[in-house]
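Summary for the lay section of the report: proteins are chains of building blocks that fold into shapes. Here we show the chain for HXXEE domain-containing protein and then a coded description of the shape we predicted for it.
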Amino acid sequence: MITAEILFWVYLVNSILLINHEIDSAYWKEWELFKLPGSITGFLLIHIPLIFFVLYGLVLVFQQSFTGLVFSLVLSFAGIFAFTAHMYFIRKGRDEFKIPISLFILVSTLIVSLIQAVLTIHLMINW
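The coded shape description reads as follows.
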């Protein structure tokens, strides 16, 4: 039986992976890769509300609210997007995110995000 408690722990693991990926992204100057304005300052400012919403979603999942399921689905799609976007750039010849730990985080994020999406959709259907 899939429970909201299992989803909570999967969401937490995915949050940790994605936040670590964002730390790695600062190292690789991801704002240059995606042509974002503002250099490191803009990158960090964007992450204040992003990390807030990731953590707020964890609270909502813990509270077993339907809104928490929506946040969970968004987070799982964000993880799938992160993997896909970076694999695209790697295949285009970019050197960012090619070291073993960066690849481990990206692949782990994909796996956990897919599991999270399945769990979330199952709970949404059975809401």
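Put simply, here is one thing we learned. The chain has one domain: 4-125.
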